Amino acid sequence: MLVAFVVAAATACTSSANHHAESPATPSTAAHHAAGTPGTTGAATASPQQRQAQFEQLYGQHALLASRLMRGVVASSDDFTRAATTSLQRNADALSGEVAAAYGNGQADQFRQLWQHHNDGLIAYANAVAGGNASARLEAQKNLIATCGAHGSWMAAASKGRIKASHATSIMRVHVENLMRQVDAFAARDYNQAYLLERAAYEQMYAAGATMAKGSVSPQVAASLDAPAEKLRSAFGMLLGEHMELVIGAQRATFIGPQEFKAAGAQVNQNTAALAQAMGAIVGSHEGAEFQEAWAEHVEGLMDYSTAIAAKDDAAKAKAEKDMHTYAVDLAVFFSQLAPKQLDFVSLTRAITAHDEHVVGQINAYAARNYDQAQQVESDGYQQMLGVSNVLIRAIQFKLQNSLPIGGSKTGGGGTASRSR
Fold this sequence. Notes:
- It is globular and about 50 Å long.
- The protein starts with a helix and ends in a 22-residue tail after the last helix.
- The chain folds into two domains: 47-224, no CATH class; 227-421, no CATH class.
- Mean pLDDT is 86; it is low at 14-42 and 403-421.
- It is 81% helix and 0% strand.
- It is mainly alpha-helical.
């Protein structure tokens, strides 16, 4: 489905290339946007497209932070739970800020209260699961479902009817059910299901961010947010942000046990395959296969590093660091050849290296049980990766001015799949 969607969006981008094309980015511009966090003009002056991107990113991040916090409660990891709670609160503050900019301060105050009840309910549910308290679990579930209805009513009022209460309630209901089911699976040690549902929760809430953005603007402006160029940006932003977070989940699982690591790695592979298919659908199957190989090596290097840290193997750590640099260069070469007039090799290498540094930095902090730092570096890395996505999408749109997307990726497997080295 993703490949078909990307092809359709890319084709439409090509048919209206003069409308969507931007002037070629200079190397310095590409470096600035790719190596840093996604730039905005400030919440008060953000464009509808920027606001949609922010809502998507923050909603997706909320799902992951909540999922990991709930697991921390079940695993009785008190220090991590405290750090994760702080991260979830920062995410809520950022979301409230976006709501204030989009809907006004009064609506933001109501949202903040509803969202706090939502987060408290998730924690209460996790505590009930951890304690094996069936009655408390049912009560927490009842309260969480009630907050879904309250959120739907608020959304309908805040959007002045542009978003139906039933639709907003349904979105939150699916979200809540995903998070409850993933922590139930985690507690039952069904790690495959837990990590699958975590990824589903991220993707569902990332998409929900678009609904929040559209509810704050006129129907005409909302329709523009469904333009092919925006859908293409959203799809790749979701996949690259997901890549960052799934790799982090798999790295941390190396400190827990092989069963959980295998389950986390399976979702990394699924993300890698989806990225390769999407890239192949746009630039052709041959280039898609090249991307698959380079991206898989990139992921493997990150996994090798965390394995070395967990094993306290300094020699393996040094080798992984060297390999990561090689893989960053390989990826930079691929992307720079994709659109030479748009993408600068040096800037891309720096951007991918910055991504690696974020992933390495968070696992170093996590291994040292400095969970506050690990959570902060994770958040910084998530935002930076979405900035990289924006640069790549501009280059892809530029490339599509002259050629239609062809074929589709004929490759399979993901970042931890077997391949030639």
